[in-house]
Amino acid sequence: MFLENTVNHKEQFGWIEVISGSMFSGKTEELIRRLKRAQFAKQKVEIFKPIVDTRYHEEKVVSHDENEIRSTPVPAAANIRLLADDCDVVGIDEAQFFDDEIVTVCNDLANMGIRVVVAGLDMDFKGNPFGPMPALMATAEYVTKVHAICTRTGNLANYSFRKSNNDKLVLLGETEEYEPLSRAAFYKAMLKEKINKMKVEAEEIKQGKKDTNA
């Protein structure tokens, strides 16, 4: 778990904390909790999120439970470095949507003595590592992986299954678009999708042959 008091007080370096998990796992809720506690301690806190994330509010970071905190939307990771001057703590939400430079930015801030708290999806809807999150988790001092509850089995869920047929990597959405699934449920859902796709392709080939013979 992350530490807020270091042993060697002469060391001026900061650190990186990463909060990762599936959708509906409480990542943003935990991010807000840590940042609000820092604000209560009179520390200077700045929060950033990608400008594409406008689901709940254009400027605020808002959790599914409607807990919120003021933030600054930015178009690229490099903007964070410019705007985070003279901070004690920097919070970053939805880190998976940032470009790869977010890793360098977070490490630069930590090297400047800033505590960096990052939240983001560790896997995309296909179950693959998402964007810069693997590199962030590898370079962070502290990683917290939170879990949702599987909507089909009731077990712990760490996959974000997309219910729609949209194949875009970045698709903002809520319960109508995604559901958290356990490993077993995710495997079965993906297998079912693959079988259905094969059936559709076979039907299209069959239909094409009929049209050719007509």
What's the quick description here?
By secondary structure, this protein is an alpha/beta fold. It has helices spanning 27-40, 77-83, 101-111, 133-139, 183-213; strands spanning 15-21, 45-50, 61-62, 68-69, 72-74, 89-92, 115-121, 142-146, 148-149, 156-157, 159-162, 178-181.
Describe this structure in words.
- This protein is α/β, with parallel strands linked by helices.
- It has one domain (15-213): 3-Layer(aba) Sandwich (Rossmann fold), CATH 3.40.50.300.
- It contains five helices and twelve strands.
- It has helices at 27-40, 77-83, 101-111, 133-139, 183-213, and strands at 15-21, 45-50, 61-62, 68-69, 72-74, 89-92, 115-121, 142-146, 148-149, 156-157, 159-162, 178-181.
- The strands form four sheets. Strands 5-2-6-7-1-8 form a six-stranded parallel beta sheet, with helices on both faces. A two-stranded antiparallel sheet has the order 3-4. A two-stranded antiparallel sheet has the order 9-10.
- Helix 3 runs parallel beside helix 4 (133-139).
- It is elongated.
- The model has no long low-confidence stretch (mean pLDDT 86).
